[in-house]
C-alpha cells in the first residue's frame, strides 16, 4: 500500500499546505476584524474547521481527533470540527463507481445504483453508501481516489520533521522518529481495506463478550481492495447523545469505556479513531462502533507494561509506575538521575490517582509525563503513544457526557483480567 512519494509530489503537497494555510489565516483576520461580536466566535470556528478539510490527508485525521476534545478546543470549535467526522465534501458518483469497478472483476448486484446516489456519510478516507442486498440493507465503504498518495506525502513530511527535531539538543534523546514511523505505518494501514475487513471481524469477535456494544458484521463476499461492505445499522445520529436521558447516555458511555478497556488491557488491540463518526450512541443505552481501519496491535510486552502502569495508577502506587516505565527504557545515560526520575514519576501518579473524569486531565498528565522523560532523558516504550491517543479521545467523550465516572477505577476489572491472563500464560 505504501510507496515512497516522489519529490514532485512532496513539493506540490508542501505548496498546497502553505497556500491554504495562508488563505485561512487571511480569512480569519478578516472575520475577526469585520464580524459582529455576537457572531465572531462561531464564524472563526467555522473557518478554522475548514482548514483541515482543505488540507485533507493526515491533517483531516488530526481535525477529527481534536473534535472529540471539547474541553481543549471549546464548544464552538468542537461543533465546527464535528462536521469532519461524517460530512466532509464527498467524492463524485463517477469517482466512487470507478473505484468500485477497479476493485471487482464484476460489480456485485445493486452496487452500481447505490454508488450513483449521495453517500450516507463522507469521511476523511472514504464515503459510505447504502445498498439493498438479498439479505437486507448493507453499507458500502469506498476508498477515496489518490488518498494513498496524499497520506504518503504527509507521513514523509512528518518523518522528516521528526528527524530534524531529534537534532535539537533538548529533544536529542526523544524517540520522535520511532513514534512518527509507527504512527505513519498505522495511518497507512488504515488505507488497506482488506486489512480493515479482517480487523472488523476481529473487533466484532473481541467485543461480543462486552455488554452494550454493537459492531456491524462485514460481508466478505462483497469486500475487495478499496471496498468494505458490512451490515447497515440504521438510525445512527452522532448528535443524539446530547439529547438522550442521562441514564441512557451514561449507560452508552460506560459501554464504550468497557469496550476500550477490554481491547486495551486484555487484547492489546487499540482503536485509535474513536471520534463521533465511528462511535454512535443509541436510545437503548448501547454503543455502536463502525470502523476498524485505524487500529494498532500492541506487542505483548508493551501491553503488559501499560496494563501494569495503569494498575499502579488505580492504586496510587507511584513507585511501581516509575519502575514499570524504567523497565521499558531502551538506554540509560551514565549521567541520568534515575532516583530523581523515580521520585518525580511517583509524585505525578499520586497527584492524579483516584480522580473522577471531570477532575482528571489525561492530556495534561501525558504532557507532564513526557516532560519528565525528556528532562531526565529516560524515554519509555514508543508504543505507549497509541493507547494514550485512544484514551485521549475516549476521555473527551467521558468528560463531556459522563463527568462523574471514575475513569481510572472503571478500568480495574479489565486491568486485573489482563494481568491474570499474563500470569496464567507465564505459568504454562
TrEMBL record:
Start and end residues of each ABC1 atypical kinase-like domain = 83-324
Chain segments annotated as coiled-coil in the UniProt record: none
Give the matching InterPro entries.
ABC1_dom, ADCK_kinase, Kinase-like_dom_sf
So which domain of life are we looking at?
Answer: Bacteria
- Family annotation (CDD domains): ABC1_ADCK3-like
The cross-references to PANTHER family, in alphabetical order and at most eight, read:
AARF DOMAIN CONTAINING KINASE 2 (PTHR45890:SF1), AARF DOMAIN CONTAINING KINASE 2 (PREDICTED) (PTHR45890)
Q: Mind telling me what this protein is named?
A: ABC1 atypical kinase-like domain-containing protein
What organism is this sequence from? Planomonospora parontospora subsp. parontospora
